[in-house]
Amino acid sequence: MRPRVLIPVRSIYRDYLLSPPIVESLEQFADLEIVVDPAGLESKQYARLYAGRDAVLTTWNTPLIGREVLERATELKIISHAGGEVRPFISPELFDIRPDLILCNASNVMARPVAEHSLCVTLALLRSLFHFKEWVREDENWWEYDPAKNVSLLEKKVGIVGLGQIAREFIRLLGLFDTEILVYSQHLDPEKARQEGLVKSSLEEIFSTCDVISINAASIPANRHMIDARLLKMIKPGAVLVNNGRGMLIDEPALIAELETGRFSAAIDVTEEEPPAAGNKLRFLPNVLLTPHIGGPVPAQRIWMMQEAVANLKAYFEGKPVRGVVDKQRFLYMA
């Protein structure tokens, strides 16, 4: 008997994510039901969608899969998410109500583009590319620029806050630059760090000594504003701060206050409020490279997430290993 797969999807994403090749690949091994805009259903109607399903393929903005849904979904075996974050729509009750249920995501294919973006903005700020773009237009002293505006990443000290898949992919890319890498992670064993060529460090050491600081910690309540005014004041002159994690990790008013000193520069792809208010100073400070949350897979790469979600479903029903499994521990600490 072919598995019965439910796909709840918003109308704005249906044609974009469920392209003919994706649907065809699913139909090769499963019977599908695509439900458009399920958020408009009453809770009982929504829960009934899951009755009799063997699997669910979720995308962005999936409504909550909580107790009411899980009590209906008695035959559900796997939830395969075509994205990274699962906490917005998965209730923690899942692990108690259905400990047998497999939850997996596509974060492994998302990590590479985010790490690429982190490297891109790091190099752009170290080399002051946007400064020099204006410099060559307006200054006649072609060669007489401030040397502090032209800095290499080679052999620099890089601090990584949080050690998830994105951070590890960024570390892999940094291997090309012979950097010294300091890592703050409560889950990293110092000896294992040494074996991997990393140095387990404190936040204080990272913020006071590193040339580049990359924020990749999990967006859990305990980490709200973990990067506070005290740490931000430690950042040394000329350093680069990169936040491709979540805006809530940094005390934004404190960050703005320190950036206004001009002491360091920052690449910010995520803000506490998205989009930031029209008058938010991050939009205008000359030492800030603010981007509109574009660090993830570019539009042409987003099919990778759907392909991974489909591959995980196919693997499960063929009795093969599933990638990106999210167990209770990972659920609590993942970004």
UniProtKB/TrEMBL annotation:
SUPFAM superfamilies: Formate/glycerate dehydrogenase catalytic domain-like, NAD(P)-binding Rossmann-fold domains. The keyword Oxidoreductase applies. GO terms for molecular function: glyoxylate reductase (NADPH) activity; hydroxypyruvate reductase [NAD(P)H] activity; NAD binding. One of its GO terms (cellular component) is cytosol. Keywords: NAD, Oxidoreductase. Residues 121-295 form the D-isomer specific 2-hydroxyacid dehydrogenase NAD-binding domain. Pfam families: 2-Hacid_dh_C. Gene3D superfamilies: NAD(P)-binding Rossmann-like Domain. The keyword Transcription does not apply. This is D-isomer specific 2-hydroxyacid dehydrogenase NAD-binding domain-containing protein. It comes from Candidatus Glassbacteria bacterium RIFCSPLOWO2_12_FULL_58_11.
